[in-house]
Structure formats: C-alpha cells, structure tokens
Amino acid sequence: MQKQEVNVTLEGNNQEGKKHKKHADLKRPSLGNFGRNEWAIVGGPCTTIKFLADQVINALSSEYKCAYIDTTHNDDVTLMPAKLANGAFLEYYDQVNYTQLNYKEPFNSFKLKETFASADLILANGNHNPAKAQVVIIYENKRASLQKRVEQLDNVQMILLADNATEIFDFIKEAVPHWNELPVYRLDETEMIIDFFRKQLHKAKPKLNGLVLAGGKSERMGFDKGSVNWHGKEQRYHMADLLGSFCEEVFISCRPDQQLRIESPYLSLPDTFLGLGPYGAILSAFRDRPDEAWLVVACDLPLLSEKSLGYLVDQRNVATIATAYQSRFNDFPEPLITIWEPKSYRVLLSFLAQGYSCPRKVLINSDITLLNAPDPEEMTNVNTPEELEKVKLALQQI
Q1: Which of 22-36, 125-139, 186-200, 237-251 bottoms out in mean pLDDT, i.e. has the lowest?
Q2: Are strands 322-326 and 333-340 parallel, antiparallel or unpaired?
Q3: Distance, CA of 250 to CA of 247 (rounded, Å)
C-alpha cells in the first residue's frame, strides 16, 4: 500500500497556508529597557557616574521628570526592610517629603517599563544596567572594565574624557564607527554635557496630532452635532481645519459605521475601543500611534478659536501627562480640549482596568498642567436644541 504524504503547517491550518496570527497586531511604544529617553553612562567609576547623573538631574529636573537607575554592589550591606523580612511582599511608607515603596520580588522588563513610564529622562549606571543609548567615559583606570562591555555600545551618543584620558581607546573607535562625529567633552565641562541632554530631550518632544471627537450619537440634540454648519461647513470639518494650524496631522474620530461618510481629504480614525465614548476615542488614537501626542477637541465647541488653541499649544508641558484648560463652571479640568501626551496612554488604560472611563477623572487624579482659558466662553459646548439657539445668537453678535 502506497503511503500518503501529509503536509502539516505549523503556522495554522487555513487552506491557503497563510500564517496564522495568535495576537492582535498592536503598535508598541518605542521604549528601551526602562523608558523612551534613556542613557547608560558607562566607563567610569560608579562614584563618577553617580556624581555626573546628580549634576544633570539637578539642572533638568525643573523642566523634565528625571530618573536614575543603579545596582547595589555585592559588598554593600543590604538588609531587607522590616516588614519584608517578616514575610510581606510589599510595604508602602508615606514619608513627609517623599513616598517609599519596597518590593520583595525582582522586577521583570514589563514592570520596569511600567514603573519608569512617566520619566522624561532616565540615566543609568551603565556599569551595571544597559540602556537604549550610551554615554561613554574614557577613564584610563577603567579601560579593561569598559572593554568587557564593548558589545553593549550599540548606540553611543556622547564621549566624555576623564582627567587622566589623553585619547579615545582604539577598541572604542572600532566598536563605534562614527565616533569622530560624536560630541566629545571633558568630564568637567558640565554645562556642555547638560546642554547635550537638554537638546536631546527637546528633539524627542512627541509629534502633536489633532483628534476631532465626532463619533457620538448626539441623543440629546436629536441629530448629528458634527453636521451643524456654524462657519460655512460642517462643524467636524471646521474643527479639523482649526487644528490643522497647530498639528502635523488631524483625524476625525468616528464610529466604524461613520467612517465612509467622512469626506475626502479629511482623515478619519474609527474607534477600536468600543462603547466608551470619548475615552474610547482617545485610547483608539493612542493604539494607532502610541508615541505621538494628541490635541483632542470635541466637535461641539462652535465658539472655539485659534486663540484658545494656540495658547494651549504654546503652554504645552510634555513633563506632565496632559495640558488642559480649567472648566468655566468649576475647578475641574476640561478633558475634551486637552493635549494628551504619550505617557497618558498607560494611565488611561490603568484607570480603565479599575473600572473608570471618565477622562476628566483621569486628569483630576494625575499630574497635569492646568491652564486658565484666555476666553472661557469659547469652552461652551452645545448638546441640546436650546443650547444651539443660544449659541446661534452669540455667533450673530461676534
């Protein structure tokens, strides 16, 4: 009897032999070992690295959230805190000037990224902790130690010469082909070193996109609010044009069933977090572009002008998760005319995991930049036919 040959495809059993995907094709944020903007300082004594990190952090902490990473030496005495020693896996202290959280279990790579997600600048002692980018110290007494770590030098961005260094080591020149194009400073040229990091952080400022929220069902109004013609065109398109002066790209957020009704050349971004209203629209935007910031504006703000948008953009603070206006009715932030930074994506998901889908609640309970609007009346939104008639009269008087 002739044997029958059977072909088994490991990727899946679909008839066309296409590769089977087990997981959704998500866009991941551009993170390193710890965060977006991280540098390992490597090549000098640990005391030198710590001192340099202190100088940089002290100079930049008023503008950016700075973090430092190091590893305790084996010869240091490290006694476990009391409650951990007694069996607890976690203990929390609310100190007068800071809070302290002690863990018993080591952090894996996911926990590390979550912990440092809010940091704008992360400096690490590269003698113990590699990072996405590196600063190399040429220190004669540490030549052998640096040579052992040469494989970690895959993205060197600056070279520093210690007092006892006369030239860059040959093995560094071999490992870093573009070494002669890098900034090279003496270790005591502190201001130039700080300026390097300041410029790098400025270059890393996330791109700003616009998102017009037009996916609501307008149940109180009785018809689509985004279709109202206040300024010679449908309001959703008017708002997109307003944002175009301040954003690199502008998208109209909509339900999937609305997408085909968005006119060209306007870009649309359908909700992928369904049933969550504006919260889902913001999350959908970050799911599509997790490394970019979003200037989110509701479509039902007919009095909003370039003046208010311009002030919001000018006062944008990337060190906080969002820049928002205070509501004209209370002290709370107004979430639907807000710049949401990439670092807010994790925060929004965290609140959702705890059962909250209110963007205002996220802003109230997070580190944000809260502004007074130049003209509070421009924050007026229209949800009912009665409010529509009032705004019509206001527009006629402008």
Answers
A1: 22-36
A2: antiparallel
A3: 7
CA distance 69 to 58: 15
What pLDDT is attached to residue 62?
95
Q: 80 with 219: CB under 8 angstroms?
A: no
Picking from 163, 182, 203, the residue at the C-terminal end of a domain is 203
Number of domains the chain is built from? 2
Q: Are 270 and 348 in contact (CB under 8 A)?
A: no
- Strand order across the beta sheet in which 208-213 lies: 267-270, 250-254, 208-213, 293-298, 333-340, 322-326, 369-371
- Mention every residue, 6+ apart, whose C-beta is less than 8 A from residue 7: none
CA dist 92 and 180 (Å) reads 48
What CATH number should be reported for the domain holding residue 225?
A: 3.90.550.10
Taking only the tens place, the pLDDT of each residue in 258-288 is: 888 889 999 999 999 999 999 999 999 999 9
Q: Are 140 and 162 in contact (CB under 8 A)?
A: yes
* pTM of the entire predicted model: 0.88
Judge whether residue 82 has pLDDT over 90. Answer: no
CA atoms of 104 and 81, how far apart (whole Å):
9
CA distance 332 to 11: 51
Q: Where are the alpha helices (DSSP H) in 235-354?
A: 235-244, 278-288, 306-314, 344-353
